[in-house]
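Deliverable D5.2: sample structural annotation.
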Amino acid sequence: MQPKPSLSQSVDATLLHSLLSDVYDLPSPIACEAYASGLNDIFEIKADAFHAMLKVYRRGWRTREEVLDEIAVLFHLHEKGVSVALPIPSRSGQYVWTIDERQIVLFSFASGLENDTNDVSSYYFSGQTLAKIHNATSDFKNARLKYDTERQLVQPMVHIASFLGNQSEDFRYLEALIARIQRYIDNPPKFTFDWGYCHGDFRCANMRWDEANRTLTVFDFELGGIGYRAYDLAYMLTNLHPVVMERLWGAPRIDNFSARWNAFLQGYDEERPLRAEVIAAIPYFVAMRPINIMGYLLETAQTKQNDETWPPSQAGGLPGGDLFFRCITFLRVWGEMHLSASS
């Protein structure tokens, strides 16, 4: 059986263009162009002076209720002065609508550039902004996702065991590594990790830096959840550290890594003081991400077989191409470098 069309083919700009004027109260003419396609499809919308981004969620990825939870935290943050890309209501006053079982939301446009420039100060503002998000959500309890060791480490191993086999060398290595990470995170000596709302995907691609106004706008909160906030800090590191960039993402090293990372930590610490023990533990939270990715890739391959795939996989293969095995290779290197066998 041939796989169904890719995400970008199943809902295209032409179809959306014909629906936008029916759903939203926008000036004419409306321009709708494909912007990005990955886990979700993103379209850039322009109409006279109006500028926004339309997000078409992956089929089955999020329910309407889950998207409404995501929207709730955006308004919560906006009310507390954090700059986020807010949803735009439809003509009927709704924020979420559906095509072919896919949730759709129109978000305000975040002006500026990704803060992966040589302007190290933008990383200071990134850290400051993440701390403000954590401060502002101390009373926000509606997120359904959990960023704890059960979800990030234990649950993925069920899928990993069924794929690798629980006697394989890779599985035995991962099993021992996960036990070490879980023991370190769940039973830290003489202190407890900060627990609360996490953005879940805090990285340069999900924020825009307006250098002229020195402001940072954050978006893409669909992975927001409750958990160890050190995970949010670690996720920024997974998009900066040279070993992670090369071994996990297969991407070039980023210049001035140490200066960017230190500026990020400084900005966070000035808004929300960081304990030295938390900074020391960040490498353990970095390792949580690839383990979770491996579990998700396998789960997707099992539940979406002969259905839509996640580019750039090949038909019949794991979603994400060779990312699964890059995760294992990376974890071996990272574990040797940063995760003490005695922890």
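Annotation notes: The beta strands are 31-37, 41-47, 50-56, 97-99, 102-108, 145-147, 195-198, 207-210, 215-218, 225-228. DSSP finds eleven helices and ten strands in the chain.
The annotation will be released with the project's public dataset once the embargo ends.
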